[in-house]
Amino acid sequence: MYYIPVILGSVRRNRETAKVARFVLDLMKELPCVTAELLDLKSLDLPMMEERLRFRDDPPPALSEFSGRISRADAIVIVTPEYNSGYPGVLKNALDYLKDEYKRKPFGIITVSSAWSGGMLCLTALRQVILHLGGIPIPAILPVCRVQDAFDEQGTLRDLQFRQRAEQYLGELLWFTEALAVQRSRST
Q1: Which strands sit side by side in the sheet containing 136-137, from one edge to the other?
Q2: Beta strands 106-112 and 76-81, pairing class
Q3: What is the DSSP-derived secondary structure letter of residue 109?
Q4: Does an H or E element contain 182, and which?
Q5: Distance CA 9, CA 24 (A)
Q6: 20 to 30 Å CA-CA from 92: which of 47, 136, 137, 150?
Q7: Highest-confidence range of 83-97, 104-118, 147-161, by mean pLDDT?
Q8: Average pLDDT, stretch 36-64?
Q9: Superfamily of domain 2-186
Q10: How many Å apart are CA 123 and CA 141, to the nearest integer?
């Protein structure tokens, strides 16, 4: 059984990204080999980083909780909006607290946009950060273009082709999760 948390990378009011994160989480829970949970940065409410966790002797409780879940993870999914051609500062803040916890773990990055671009500039920038932190962004992409058309106000999927794309995407994530889990077990 693989543990794969889904990081919801937005704290904005009326965030459309939450609909996508919950949908992906529900899809992951249907997979017999996956245990998944939502790590909502709004709920975690991490303070601005003054120092990485490993250098602190006074970590905020939410940070220790976040670190523990990321450490246990076999893979990580990030669902994030694109803001001004990048990712939200709250996501960068959360990611920067940790480093060793990400080592050799696959990352699925799902970008959300109200425009037709689907957050591709955000994806490109975030992949560079994940690589620097020691994680491995999977090559598959799952941009959510015009999120307001893909999901209704209650978060119900309108675009039925998106479900098929999401299932294929999660299949790729699981391939990398299994392959890297095998390699990590050999190196310990």
Answers
A1: 34-40, 2-8, 76-81, 106-112, 136-137
A2: parallel
A3: E
A4: helix 160-186
A5: 14
A6: 150
A7: 83-97
A8: 89
A9: Flavodoxin domain (3.40.50.360)
A10: 8
DSSP output for 17-71: HHHHHHHHHHHHHTSTTEEEEEEEHHHH-PPPPSS-GGG-SS--HHHHHHHHHHH
What's the rounded Cα separation, in Å, for the pair 55 and 30? Answer: 38
Q: For 30-39, 76-85, 106-115, 146-155, which range has the lowest pLDDT when averaged over its residues?
A: 146-155
Tokens for 96, please give them: 């920067």
Amino acid at 23: F
SS3 73: coil
Q: How many CB atoms lie within 10 A of CB 149?
A: 11
pLDDT tens-digit profile of 54-108?
877 888 889 999 999 999 999 999 999 999 899 999 999 999 999 999 999 999 9
Residue 60, number of CB atoms within 10 A of its CB: 15
Q: What is the pLDDT of residue 188?
A: 64
